[in-house]
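Backbone-to-sequence.
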């Protein structure tokens, strides 16, 4: 029987996020004993032992609803970041906060400015809300802030800046970003997505939190999914003017962040030694990959995150499939705006060495690893 119900017309312009096959299915399909997943930009070093210990203590309380205001976590973050609690909003991942910002502030026909190649959920959610995404091409993998300013019209409601940018890993220099924020009209929201903030080890990176006192239209997004290793629990947060936070509270689900996620985030903040260790191990892996890839003649964007966009000189799909034969899963650039590239998560040194070994074999035409 044919389905007669009709979805919203706007959904004809939207496609579902391409999740692809699971690692388990790929492993079974290809007859591989295991797969090293370097495609999803996860923290391969996991999460703090504090988190695991704390979660076991929460299991007797699963019959209760979570705190819809996430009061304990909000207070913890406020102290950690030295901000007032009313500037914080806790979300089901920063993805949810992006969606809620658009639900609260974007009317049908309004525009949102973003990079042409960046986190794809900006564009998707703007479209779903009936808005118009305005795409500005990157310049050498970086946001063209001048071009974004020129794209502002009377219909512009939000501007998204992903810093470091996914999928390129690049940052915009602090002087340029400072100048950019000052030039955006105060009725337009500037959303700085800093999902990879903790990985940045560069003096040219803007420390944005102090800017909240000066710019009421600034929103900063961060997450526990990356360096804190809690991607499976879906929890992130935004820093913003109290008025914006209150508007988001009007449109969010009542219990949007589950009890275990809140407890895990609190514990993760208590173990900054683990965070520092993850960043140091990531830096070690990044230096190794940069050196090896340079010796092999590959180019790549200068990354300030836990992943690299590597230009392969041939279709990324081909390289991705060859690597998969050897038990390494990476993201082909064909889905990310760079068809002749792959995006690779920086991993443990053992996995990094194996990745380079496989890449060398592919380059030499041997393909498989003996």
């Amino acid at each position: 029987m044919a389905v007669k119900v009709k979805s919203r017309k706007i959904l004809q312009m939207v496609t579902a996020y391409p999740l692809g096959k699971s690692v388990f299915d790929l492993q079974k399909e290809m007859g591989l004993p295991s797969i090293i997943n370097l495609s999803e930009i996860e923290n391969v070093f996991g999460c703090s032992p504090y988190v695991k210990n704390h979660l076991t203590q929460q299991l007797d309380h699963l019959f209760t609803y979570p705190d819809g205001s996430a009061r304990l976590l909000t207070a913890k973050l406020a102290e950690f970041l030295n901000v007032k609690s009313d500037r914080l909003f806790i979300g089901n991942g920063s993805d949810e906060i992006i969606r809620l910002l658009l639900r609260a502030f974007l009317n049908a026909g309004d525009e949102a400015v973003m990079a042409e190649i960046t986190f794809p959920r900006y564009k998707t959610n703007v479209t779903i809300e009936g808005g118009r995404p305005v795409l500005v091409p990157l310049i050498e993998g970086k946001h063209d802030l001048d071009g974004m300013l020129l794209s502002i019209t009377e219909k512009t409601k939000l501007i998204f800046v992903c810093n470091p940018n996914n999928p390129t890993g690049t940052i915009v220099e602090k002087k340029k970003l400072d100048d950019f924020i000052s030039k955006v009209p105060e009725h337009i929201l500037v959303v700085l997505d800093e999902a990879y903030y903790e990985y940045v080890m560069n003096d040219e990176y803007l420390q944005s939190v102090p800017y909240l006192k000066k710019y009421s239209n600034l929103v900063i997004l961060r997450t526990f999914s990356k360096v804190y290793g809690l991607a499976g629990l879906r929890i992130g947060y935004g820093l913003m003017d109290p008025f914006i936070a209150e508007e988001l509270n009007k449109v969010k689900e009542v219990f949007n962040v589950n009890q275990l996620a809140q407890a895990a985030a609190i514990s993760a903040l208590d173990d900054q030694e683990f965070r520092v260790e993850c960043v140091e191990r990531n830096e070690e892996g990044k230096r190794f990959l940069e050196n090896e890839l340079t010796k092999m003649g590959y180019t790549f964007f200068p990354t300030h995150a836990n992943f690299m966009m590597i230009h392969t000189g041939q279709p990324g799909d081909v390289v991705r499939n060859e690597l998969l034969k050897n038990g390494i899963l990476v993201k082909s650039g064909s889905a990310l705006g760079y068809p002749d590239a792959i995006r690779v998560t920086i991993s443990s040194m053992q996995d990094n060495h194996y990745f380079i070994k496989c890449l060398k074999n592919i380059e030499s035409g041997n393909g498989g690893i003996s």
